[in-house]
Amino acid sequence: MASFLDLVDQRVVVYDGATGTFLQTLELSADDFGGPDLEGCNEYLAITRPDVVARFHETYFDVGVDVVETDTFGGLPVTLGEYGLADRAHEINVAAARIAREVADGFSTPHRPRFVAGSMGPGTKFPSLGQIRYAELRDGFEAQAAALLEGGVDLFIIETMFDLLSIKAAMNGARRAMATAGREVPLQVQVTMELTGRMLPGTEIAAALAALDPMRPDVIGLNCATGPSEMGEHLRHLSQHARMPISCLPNAGLPSVVDGKMHYDLTPEQLVEHHTRFVTELGVQVIGGCCGTTPEHLRQVVEHCGDLTPAPRTPQHEPGATSIYSLVPFHQDTSFLIIGERTNANGSKKFRESLLEGDWDTCVQMAKDQVKEGSHVLDVCVDYVGRDGTGDMDEIAKRFATQASAPLVMDSTEPQVMEAGLQWLGGRAILNSANLEDGEADGSRLDRVFKLAKEYGAAVICLLIDEEGQARDVEWKMRIAHRIHELAVGRYGLEASDLVFDALTFPLSTGDDDLRRDAIETFEAIRRIKAEIPGAFTTLGVSNASFGLKPAARHVLNSVFLHEAVEAGLDSAIVHAARIMPLNKIPDEQRQVCLDLVYDRRGTAGGTGEDPSYDPLQALLAVFEDVSTTEVVQEDRSDWTIEQLLSQRIIDGERDGLEADLQAALDQGTPALAIVNDTLLAGMKVVGELFGAGEMQLPFVLQSAETMKTAVAYLEPHMEKVEDGGGKGRIVLATVKGDVHDIGKNLVDIILTNNGYEVHNLGIKIGISEMIEKALEVKADAIGMSGLLVKSTLIMRDNLEELNDRSLSNIPVVLGGAALTRSYVERDLREVYEGRLFYGKDAFEGLRVMDRLGELRRGAEDDPDWGRVPSDSVVPSRIKEQFAGTGDGPAADAPSRSPEAGTDNPVFEPPFLGSKVVKGLAIDDIAAYVNETAIFRNQWGFRPEDGESDEEFKARIRPTLREQLAIAKQDALLVPQVVYGFFPANGDGNELVIWKDESRTSEWLRFDFPRQSKEPWLCIADFFRPVGSGEADYAAFQIVTMGATVSERTAELFAADRYQEYLLLHGLGVEMAEALAEYWHHRIREEWGFADEDGPDLQGLFRQQYRSGRYSWGYPACPDLEDNVKVAELLGAERIGLEVSEDTGFQYQPEQTTSAIICHHPRAKYFVAR
Fold first, then answer.
1. DSSP 3-state of 68
2. Is the peptide bond before 433 cis (omega within 30 degrees of 0)?
3. Taking the model in full, what pTM does it have?
4. At residue 529, does pLDDT exceed 80?
5. Cβ neighbours of residue 701 closer than 8 Å, sequence gap 6 or more
C-alpha cells in the first residue's frame, strides 16, 4: 500500500474540510461537550461524543477525500489547560487519533489508501513575544505527538502557524516523539498569512520558507486566515522556491457574521476554480479546505481536481539567513553580505559595558544602529570572563529577535550559549562557529554545533582550524574545508549552502616573515572553496588584518583588504560597516602601500619599484605616523557663549543636552522670547541659507526644525502670553480642492512654524471659500495654495479669480506644487490676479516671501511692483504644454489615427478576461523595483556629496532605505494590494471602447483620450485595433495601493513634529506604490506573454526598455482624472478598500494608490499629447 508521500508524488492529494464548521451544523449542546465549562472544547468530543467525531471523518471519506485530520487542533497540554484538561492531553489525543484511524481503515483498500493526519495547532501562546518558553512549548508538542503516534496517525500536520518559533518547537517536539517511538512519519507544515500579506509578527513568505527549508519539512504550505484569493502570491513564491511539495488548505473566503453566526461566502465552485489554478499553474500537490469549507466544497474539489496534473516546477533555492521579518540572501547582488561586529562583548567596549550593567535598551539601540549603517546581519557575542553567558544570551536574544530587523549570528565558544539564543529565534540564524580543533568525535565542538544547526535549521560559520592548529597555507586550508564539508553532509545531513567557511584572517601588522603571505593564501583559499565546494559560502573577520595598528591605518587597511577579498570571491565579512571606506576615498599613496602589504610586495616588487629595501609595513606606519584617526575632529566650543551654542544646535539639529543649554540661557536672565527671536531663529536663518546654497539637504533641514520645535516647547511656559499673538506673521495653507497631496504644503508648514510664523494648515481638498473664511478669521498676512496635479493649477487660477471677484486681492498669495513653473505663476497668473502673487519653489522661498511681507508691514520701503508685475520669463509653461490639445482639440488636419501606430503588430491574447484581486505581496519583492534616484533625491531630498559618484551616493543612502523598510515591515505600515484585469477593447478615433465580453456586441464604457496636435498625432486609442477592423484586441488595467496605514502613520508623525520620520515614511509610501505599479506591470507582461522582450536590468525598465506602455491618469497622455472612476468600476476597486469620486477629487483613497492602462502595442511609449 502506498505511503502518504508516495501518493503525493503520484497525484493530487485531497484533505478534508473544516472541523469546527461541521460541528456547528450539528448544534451540539453543552452536555455533548461534558458540561458548560467544557463547551467549545472540540477536542474533548473524542471522549464525550466519539460518534460525532467518527461521523465527521466518515462524511469526508464519503465524498472522496484522501486524508482526514484528527480532532486535535487544540490538543496541546497548555491549550487544554485552559479547560482544566491539561492532565488528560495524552488520553484525548490518543482517543482522537484512534477514532480517525478506525474510520480510515474502514475506507482504505489496497488500491485506494486513506490517511490520518495528526493535527497540531499553534496553541494560544506566542513564544516570540515571550508568552511561553520555547522548551516548554516543544515539550508540549512532544507529548501531543507521542499520543498521536500511539493512536496510529500516518503523518503530522503542523498547521495554522502564526509564529516561526512555534513551528520549530512543533517540528522538534514531533521528531523527539518519533525518535522515542521508533517510528518516522512525514511532517506537513503550514503557515498562516494574514490579510497584511505577512504572518502575525510580520514574517514574509520568503522568510518563512528560508527559515523552515533547513528544518526539512516533507510538505510545506498555507492554511487558514484568508481565502484562496489572498494566498495566490504566497503560493507563487513557494512554487518558485520550495524544494518540497506544496499544500494549500484555504478558508472559504473571508468571514462575516450573518444572523449571529459566522458565515463564509466562497462557494464550492469558486474553491474548485482556485484549486484548479493552484494545481495546474503553480504545481500545488496537496489541497483541501479550512474554516468554512464543507463536505460539498470538498466533494467538488475531489470531483474536479483529484485527477489534475500538477504543473512541473523547477524551484530555485535561496540560501540565506532570516529575521522574524525578512530573508537576507547570502548572495548579495550589489554588495557582499555585511555582518555587523559591534554587538560583541569582546570587540565593543560600549556593548560590553551595557551588557554588564543590564542596559538592554542601549544594546538594542546598538543593533538598530548597525542596521542603519548598512549591516545585513548582526554578530551577537556575549562571552565575557566571569559572566553567565547563557543568561546574557537569553536576555539579548529575546530582545533582538523582535526589535532588531536583521538576522543574527549566534557567536560563542560555548554551544549551550548559542542554543540559549536559538530558542528565541524564529528566523534562520548563523552559528559562529564550528571547527576541528578538538576533532570530530561525539561531544566535540563541531559535533555539538552541527547538531544544533540541524535541530534549529541554522547555517554555520566553519573556521579552517583542525587538531594541528589554524590553517596557514592554502593546501592546509582546503584539507580542512573538504573534511568539514564531508562531515556536515554525510554525518549530519547538512548541505553545502548551510556552510560559511572562514578562511581565517591573520594580522598583517606584525612584520613576522612567516605571516607576510597570509592574505595571499587566504584569498586563494576563498577562490578554491568557491570552485571546489559548489554552493558553499565564505566569510572573514576583516578587522584581524590590521590588528595593532593606529585607528586611521586600520580603517584604510581593512577597506583595501576587504576589497581584494571580495574580488577573490568573498561572500560576506564581519565588519563595522560605518568604518569601511570606498577605495576612491582613499588617497593613492595609502591605497598603494596597503596593496603592497596585502600582496607582500617588498623591495623592487612594490613601492616605486626602485628601492630594494622597500618594506610596505614600514611605509604604512610612516604614512600614518602623524594621523591618529580618520574621524572628524570635534570642534572646540569651550569658549563659545550660550547664544552661540544654542544657535549652532539649531543648525546641527543636535538635541542631546539642548534643555540644559536653554535653562542656562534662562538662568543668565535672557527672556524666553528673546532666546527664540534672537538666538534660535538666527540658527534657522542659517539653515535656510545653507539649504538655498545647496549645502544642507532636506532631511537635515527637518532635523533642525525638530530641534527648533523642541526648544520652543521647552521655552513656552516661560513666555508671557501676547494679545493678538501670531509671531512674525500668519498664513493660511491648503491643498486645493480635488487634490489630496500634502507633502509640499506640510514642509512649508514645518519651515514657517519653526521660523516664528503662525500657520493655519487646513489640509487637503480645500475650496477657496474655506481658505478665505479662515484667512479673514485669523487676519492672515497671506494664503498659500498647494497642488501636485496639472488640474490643480487650473483650480488655482479659478481661486485667484474668486479672490478678485470678492475684492480680496489685498491678500498676498503664494502658489506651490510640482505641476507649476515660475513662468506660469509669475507671468501668466500675475496677469490674472490683482494682488501680490508669488511662486514658492520650495519652503524656503515661501519663507523669504513671508519675511519680506513682514518687513513691509513693519514700515520698510515698499516696492509697489513686487509680486504684481508679470515677469518677462519666456520659459515654456508646463501647464500650457500639458493641456494643449485637450481644449479646442487637435488641428483640423489631424488624422483620426496616427500613422505611426501600425496595425500589423501581433495581438497578444490575455490569460483571462475580467479582473482579479491580489493580496499578500512580499514587501521585499516590491522594494526591488524602487527607483532609487526618485526616492533618494526627489522624495527625501538627499544629494551627492562633493566628488561622490552616483553609485557611491546611492550606496551611502541605501542603509536608510533598508532601515525604513524594516520599520515598515515591523509595524505593518505597508499593505500592498492589486486589482487588475484584461478586457476586450478597440480604438474608435480618440476613444477606446471597452466591451462587456469577447463577443464585442455590447459596450461597457469608453475612454476619451487627447490627441497630439502635431506629428506624429499620437493618441492612446491608436494602440488598439480600430473598431471597424473586425479584429479583436485587448487592454489591461491595474490599480495598486500601499493601503491606508502608511498615510495614517505619516499624519501621526507630522502631528507629533517628527519631521524627519514624516518625510522618510511619506517618501517610502509614494515610491513603494510606484514600485508596485512597475512590479505589477512586469507581471502583466509575463502573463500576457511578452516579458521576454524586457531589457536586461531594472534600470532599463525605468527607461521603458520593454514592450508595452503603462499610462496613469493625470499625466499628459491621459489627463482626465475622472476616468479613475471608470477604471474603478471596471476592476471592482472597492474589493481592495479603495474609494474614488468627485468628493475625493477623482483621486483614489488611500493616497498611496495609482492606476494605469497597459497597451501591448510596440509603439506604446511615454508621450505628451499637445
1. strand
2. yes
3. 0.82
4. yes
5. 687, 691, 751, 941
